[in-house]
């Protein structure tokens, strides 16, 4: 479902004498349907960079990123928009939403974007929020006012609202208490059971051990300091 | 008017195709060699500082200015070859234009209901009750209380005026909406409310939107794709979050780094 | 006769105005620009109508001039005298006898006939002006038949007053093409504009526009399906001649609320009374 081959990335800093900083080289990995692959490596080794490239947020300098039938490395924006709409989900560490929009709608939005009838979408959103123990009295409020843990759970609910066949998870259990951590891990297991291919970053070692089928150390993708 | 149906996202014909668009003011360049495709349901943001050519481009696209070179194809029709009658008919049926200053897009001497109803009447609506009902419905959608229908826009706040302008533009179910700094000059909280409204309308009505702004936070939340302009030329375009988070062009890097966290 | 050229204007000017009139007749409802002249009367006193009349008159014509239906008001009298003096034409107060009728704010009650010319004095010829002040834009709107704005005006009326409150200068569509301001005639007169055997010419002196409705042209008053046009008048009969079908003026008769309603068309009222019709307060002329 997710196939990465010989992927490389560099940043060109035009405002600092056009310095070219290579950050990744020869990255290759694959994630099969129903499989969860964890990225490991020290902070700054490029785990997030790799995830962002799969998401289409960072441009690749070379190589291939096959997801849901398209090569994200060369796809047009339109293809990536469509990919994100129905085939690729992303739970990032940060919640970025329009202020003022009620939590229930934030969570239902991926479904609404797919044309799901509003009642169905909101029912699914409510179900997830309940599972993740967001009190119902908060559903009508914007999550921008929530605590970090609450925002994280809203983000997870949103990421799991639609059964994407491929899913990117960036620290999904960070800043969660034991109860909610358990809920999230079960959601991941359910997603795997229905055949989702999951690529994730988990600092929580116990969580990693429980849901990940394989680990890939991104340190191996760090460019050799030949230059 | 059947506006609630969602437009298929995977439509493979662009709604608008722009090629090599150039507009000069004497020897000065307004915009040069601009090209892009816009598909149904897509929101394209155009950013750049004052004088970057983004407003000139929008005026050329909306038919307010005639470009010197290039081609504009709307729904397989050559816009620049159209008779003015046809183009003006388009701009009051399938197209809409939201001005930065609501005073430029509203009739200040006409009630809110009359403002919303004008486009309906312009395309032949002749049943007062029906027009009023639709106006009322649209005021509701943009969160203006029903009992304000007979008030004039001058009695509205800036945010309300802007919402009224949007209702007035969308009542005939356009497919392509041009927006020039629609949240400019509004308080931050009012901006957020308007952004939320626009997002919902774009999604529910399957609108294609071209939005010109200098506010990167606005495009981040509203636009699927982003075009960065400088000196009349497009220096970079791509997926909005990609352009903002991994800008490739020197100018875009300056633009992104010179704003506070977006 | 006097030392004036026939009908005051010089022949070149009359030719210029006639060209404008002919163009107006050829394109019913279209406002033709013309080089309006200074006339020996102030703007607002019918200078547009006077120039059109001057360009139409021949020595054989018989002229009638009315102001709000009356032949004997200052404005009507002075214009009538002007043409008696400068053209030496015959004048009349009888609608049926006149070949050219210049009018301000009314159409005579007596149906007009083929060969007659009705000349309207027009203050503001542009019906779209109320909502669109830019001349360039209103011209474009006429060119492209973008008339939604006219209905906005009527919409505003209903929204504010519960009905179309416009009671004079009520906009019309001419021959399915141009929206036209019929000059400030009461909307009661609007139906008479349509399918009329006479030539109807409109002159706006200050605004320098001439337009026309040729004989037997379709003229439709704008309205809504659920608020149809109604040619209303005061719900009374004429207190002098008893007419139930003519447009009435309300006249205050004392300071205790006393009032009477009389035909605004003085010739029509007088003719009826001469025929023996008597209203509530009228006296039988034949008996008198």
From TrEMBL, chain A:
One Pfam family here: ABC_tran
ABC transporter domain location: 2-227
Highest rank taxon of the organism: Bacteria
ATP-binding is among the record's keywords: yes
Transmembrane segments: none
Key word Nucleotidyltransferase present: no
A Gene Ontology molecular function term of the record: ATP binding
Keywords: ATP-binding, Nucleotide-binding
Family: Belongs to the ABC transporter superfamily.
NCBIfam families: CP_lyasePhnL (TIGR02324)
Name recorded for this polypeptide: Phosphonate ABC transporter ATP-binding protein
UniProtKB/TrEMBL annotation, chain C:
Catalysed conversion reaction: alpha-D-ribose 1-methylphosphonate 5-phosphate + AH2 + S-adenosyl-L-methionine = alpha-D-ribose 1,2-cyclic phosphate 5-phosphate + methane + 5'-deoxyadenosine + L-methionine + A + H(+)
Record keywords: 4Fe-4S, Iron, Iron-sulfur, Lyase, Metal-binding, S-adenosyl-L-methionine
GO biological process, one term: organic phosphonate catabolic process
The protein's Enzyme Commission number: 4.7.1.1
UniProt GO molecular function: 4 iron, 4 sulfur cluster binding; alpha-D-ribose 1-methylphosphonate 5-phosphate C-P-lyase activity; metal ion binding
Protein family membership: Belongs to the PhnJ family.
Keyword Lyase appears in the UniProt entry: yes
KW Lyase (keyword) present: yes
Organism of provenance: Paracoccus sphaerophysae
EC main group: lyase
Biological role stated in the UniProt entry: Catalyzes the breakage of the C-P bond in alpha-D-ribose 1-methylphosphonate 5-phosphate (PRPn) forming alpha-D-ribose.
Stated name of the protein: Alpha-D-ribose 1-methylphosphonate 5-phosphate C-P lyase
């Amino acid at each position: 479902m997710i196939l990465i081959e010989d992927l490389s990335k560099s940043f060109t800093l035009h405002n600092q004498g056009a310095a070219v900083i290579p950050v990744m080289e020869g990255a290759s990995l694959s994630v099969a349907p129903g499989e969860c692959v964890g990225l490991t490596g020290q902070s700054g080794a490029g785990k997030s960079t790799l995830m962002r490239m799969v998401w289409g947020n960072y441009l690749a300098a070379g190589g291939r990123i096959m997801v849901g039938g398209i090569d994200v490395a060369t796809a047009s924006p339109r293809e990536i928009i469509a990919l994100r709409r129905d085939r690729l989900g992303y739970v990032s560490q940060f919640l970025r939403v329009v202020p003022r929009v009620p939590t229930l709608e934030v969570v239902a939005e991926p479904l609404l974007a797919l044309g799901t009838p509003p009642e169905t979408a909101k029912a699914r959103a409510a179900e997830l929020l309940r599972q993740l123990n967001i009190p119902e009295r908060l559903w009508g409020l914007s999550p921008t006012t929530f605590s970090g843990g609450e925002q994280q759970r809203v983000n997870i609910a949103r990421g799991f609202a639609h059964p994407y066949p491929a899913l990117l998870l960036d620290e999904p259990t960070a800043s969660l208490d034991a109860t909610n951590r358990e809920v999230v891990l079960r959601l991941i297991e359910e997603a795997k059971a229905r055949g989702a291919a999951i690529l994730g970053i988990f600092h929580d070692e116990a969580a990693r051990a429980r849901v990940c089928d394989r680990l890939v150390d991104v340190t191996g993708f760090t460019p050799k300091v030949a230059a | 008017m059947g506006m609630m149906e969602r437009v298929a996202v995977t439509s493979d014909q662009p709604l608008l195709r722009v090629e090599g668009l150039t507009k000069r003011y004497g020897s000065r360049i307004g915009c040069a060699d601009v090209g892009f495709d816009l598909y149904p349901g897509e929101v394209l943001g155009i950013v750049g500082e004052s004088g970057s050519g983004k407003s000139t481009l929008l005026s050329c696209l909306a038919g307010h200015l005639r470009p010197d070179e290039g081609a504009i194809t709307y729904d397989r029709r050559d816009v620049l070859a159209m008779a003015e009658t046809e183009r003006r008919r388009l701009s009051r049926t399938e197209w809409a234009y939201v001005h930065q200053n609501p005073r430029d897009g509203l009739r200040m001497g006409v009630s809110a209901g009359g403002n919303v109803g004008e486009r309906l009447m312009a395309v032949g609506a002749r049943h007062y009750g029906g027009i009023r009902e639709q106006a009322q419905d649209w005021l509701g959608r943009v969160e203006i209380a029903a009992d304000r229908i007979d008030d004039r826009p001058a009695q509205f706040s800036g945010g309300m005026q802007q919402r009224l302008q949007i209702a007035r533009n969308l009542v005939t179910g356009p497919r392509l909406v041009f927006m020039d700094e629609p949240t400019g000059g509004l308080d931050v909280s009012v901006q957020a409310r308007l952004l939320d409204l626009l997002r919902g309308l774009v999604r529910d009505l399957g609108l294609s939107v071209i939005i010109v702004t200098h506010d990167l936070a606005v495009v981040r939340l509203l636009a699927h794709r982003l075009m960065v302009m400088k000196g009349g030329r497009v220096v970079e375009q791509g997926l909005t979050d990609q352009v903002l988070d991994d800008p490739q062009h020197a100018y875009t890097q300056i633009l992104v780094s010179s704003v506070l966290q977006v | 006769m006097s030392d004036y050229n026939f009908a005051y204007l010089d022949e070149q000017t009359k030719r210029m105005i006639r060209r404008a009139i002919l163009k107006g007749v050829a394109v019913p409802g279209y406002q033709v620009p013309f080089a309006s002249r200074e006339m020996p009367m102030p703007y607002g006193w019918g200078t547009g109508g006077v120039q059109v009349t001057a360009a139409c008159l021949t020595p054989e014509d018989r002229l009638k001039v009315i102001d709000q239906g009356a032949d004997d008001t200052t404005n009507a009298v002075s214009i009538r005298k002007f043409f008696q003096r400068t053209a030496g034409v015959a004048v009349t107060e009888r609608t049926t006898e006149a070949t050219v009728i210049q009018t301000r704010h009314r159409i005579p009650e007596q149906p007009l006939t083929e060969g007659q010319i009705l000349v309207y004095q027009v203050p503001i010829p542009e019906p779209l002006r109320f909502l669109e002040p830019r001349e360039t834009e209103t011209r474009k709107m006429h060119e492209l038949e973008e008339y939604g704005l006219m209905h906005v005006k009527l919409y505003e009326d209903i929204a504010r007053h519960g009905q179309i409150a416009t009671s004079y200068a009520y906009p019309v569509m001419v021959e399915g093409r141009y929206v036209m301001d019929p000059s400030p005639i009461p909307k009661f007169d609007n139906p008479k504009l349509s399918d009329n055997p006479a030539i109807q010419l409109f002159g706006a002196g200050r605004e320098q526009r001439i337009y026309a409705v040729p004989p037997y042209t379709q003229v439709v008053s704008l309205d809504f399906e659920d608020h149809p046009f109604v040619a209303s008048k005061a719900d009374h009969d004429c207190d002098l001649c008893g007419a139930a079908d003519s447009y009435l003026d309300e006249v205050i008769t004392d300071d205790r609320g006393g009032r009477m309603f009389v035909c605004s068309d003085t010739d029509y009222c007088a003719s009826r009374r001469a025929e023996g019709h008597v209203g509530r307060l009228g006296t039988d002329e034949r008996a008198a």
